[in-house]
Amino acid sequence: MSGAPPRSGDRIAYALIGPTACGKSRLAMQLAARLPIEIVSLDSAQVYRGMDIGTAKPSLKDRERVPHHLADIVDPDATYSVGQFRGDALRVIDGIFARNRVPLLVGGTMLYYRALAMGLDDLPAADLAIRAALDAEAAARGWPALHAELTQVDPIAAQRIAPGDAQRIQRALEVWRVTGRPISALQKTGGAPPPFRLATFAIVPQERTALHARIAGRFDAMLEAGLIDEVRSLRQRYRLSSNLPSMRCVGYRQVWGHLEGEYDRTAMRDRAIAATRQLAKRQLTWLRSFTDVELVMEPDANRLAGRIESRMV
To answer: Which pick of 31, 77, 112, 223 has the fewest CB atoms within 10 Å?
Structure first.
């Protein structure tokens, strides 16, 4: 490796973020060939055990070559909050510093990145009664109708949340009904920054059509690799439902509907690709809201490694 470990007293972590299918994981592995890196996942789907194909989880071979953290840490019938992520990430990063290595956070879950970089928001705890009421309303009217309601009370949040994203619609309306304030306003309050410097690089695809083609190609590759069988196996091994966060993940949600007989394989593929494109659009919207992020228009490993190395000397 050509990169020297960080000097004693220097605590700089790096983040590589961007929309889905833009090449973050591949670039991270290329960087790890040059620098003393350990990778920390910034992916809210990769935390789940057994969800490998549909999350594009790094292979076991890659994880043996380069240490990876915060993947495969909970079963898919469990929940994992952004607060848990922040605590786990701070602990893991501290350990990487103690080993005199370089933490590189990699992924596209922008809420995770925001929580780490800016601290947790001052949001109320879950209110089970309100959540049950919202579930009942959604069963009667549909989540798009509740999304329309969210547009009236919190248009900023509604712009970031897809009409079918039940989990986030529910949370936003729950916060509104508990506090009388929009979640977007509370999220701006932020919290304590991390106890280290964070240098962030964001991959921004120059051609949206090329990104869409990669999204379609990657999902077809997931189907070829056995994504449907993966979801079928998970349904047999765990007590899952379509309302669990794991099964709301893009791709898994559509395969679940297919296995339930709601639509055929072709419609499932079309729905999953469309949902992934919407996810990428939301991720890019998040990116535009972040400050102190260095854009990477052409993800070249050697060039980016040089930029990181310049901060390490």
So the answer is: 77
